[in-house]
Write a structure and sequence with these properties.
Elements: H1 2-13, H2 21-44, H3 51-112, H4 116-126, E1 134-139, E2 148-153
Antiparallel strand pairs: 1-2
Length: 154
Amino acid sequence: MLTRKKRRSREFKDTSRVIDMAEAREDRRRKRKELSKTKAKGKNKKYVKTGRAAVKTARKRLIYTVIFILIITVVGMSAYSLISLRMNEAQLKAENKKLNKEKDKLEYELSQIDSDEYIEQQARQMLRMIKPGEILYVIPDNTKKSTSSGIIPE
């Protein structure tokens, strides 16, 4: 680029030619219009790539493909993580609901422990105690569960 400037300055240094600025501007505008017309015509023609340009294009496509695959992978992993967390959350909510029901049942049972009716019921069921004058019948169950008892007062 420096060589061109030096050539121009040497070229015009020794000449006494006067340059008309308006004419020079008009000349530059005309050259630009012609150049843009030739570029527009060239766009309609099929562009033939050189080997180097084809390699560059292939490299760019490869890079873009790798980036696209990485983005899809990250999005997919995020979606999988989100779905698994939501499933885990639903499972924990169900377990929490179950535990809350059990807690309520145990709290109710705890509040009933001091009552005479509860103590009598537990003594009859767990310890197989009976009141004086009652007869205890034990009937074996075929389903292998705990034996049920039938208490009949006399």
